[in-house]
Amino acid sequence: MTDSPVDPTSTDAWDRLTTLAEAFAPDLRAWFEADPERVDRMTHTAADLHVDLSKNLADDDVVAALLALAGEVRLTERRDAMLRGDHINVTEDRAVLHTALRLPRDATLQVDGQDVVADVHEVLDRVYAFAGDVRSGAWTGVTGEQIATVVNIGIGGSDLGPVMAYEALAPYADGPECRFISNIDPTDAARTLEGLDPATTLFIVSSKTFGTLETLTNARLCKAWLLDGLRSSGAIGGDDDSSSGAVAKHFVAVSTALDKVAAFGIDPANAFGFWDWVGGRYSMDSAIGTSLVVAVGPERFDEMLAGMHAMDEHFRASDLAQNVPALMGLLNVWYTNFLGAQTHAVLPYAQLLHRFPAYLQQLTMESNGKSVRWDGSPVTTDTGEVFWGEPGTNGQHAFYQLIHQGTRLIPADFIAVAEPAYPLKDAHDGQSTDVHGLFLANFFAQTKALAFGKTADEVRAEGTPEAVVPARVFEGNRPTTSIMAPALTPSVLGQLIALYEHITFTQGVVWGIDSFDQWGVELGKQLAQQVAPAVAGDAEALAEQDPSTRSLISYYLEHRS
Ligand code: F6P
Question: What is the ipTM of this complex?
Answer without folding.
Answer: 0.98
